[in-house]
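Before going further, learn to read the protein records used in this course. The integers have meaning only within a learned vocabulary of local backbone shapes. To see the layout at work, look at the sequence and tokens printed below.
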Amino acid sequence: MRGDMFAQRETFGRKLIENPIIRAKFVEMGRMIEPAQAFLEQLTCLIELGRKDRGGDEVRIGGMTAMLKVISTRCLEKCVREAQQVMGGLGYARGGKGGRVEAISRDVRVMALARDGSKEIMSELAIREEVKDLMKYSRASGKL
């Protein structure tokens, strides 16, 4: 989505970006993207720390990776839906100003399902892995 489109396109006598509802949609998208990005950075940091510290326990990232996939896929699904709402018919047309949004909307379902399963399966994997880690650490420390 190109920002200049929203600064130039007019609806109901004013620029699209001046519409409070459109601005609220962008805020909502940002509120979803920021935590997903922070989660990704946290997971990346844990992986890097695990590589540097070979003497300690290996960092188990299966559960966190599964949860990151669920969070980021939900974020993408919501953001592409909102982008299509904002762009109107352009968000559904192949090529042109809305071509990228249209392509992502087609691909998002495949990304959600084809790569390692649905969000329900990935959520189950995430909780199973986190429970394993919790039990492991509680046995090691002698308390839960």
Q: What stands out?
A: The beta strands are 10-11, 14-15. Helices lie at 3-8, 20-52, 62-87, 99-114, 119-141. The first helix runs from residue 3 to 8.
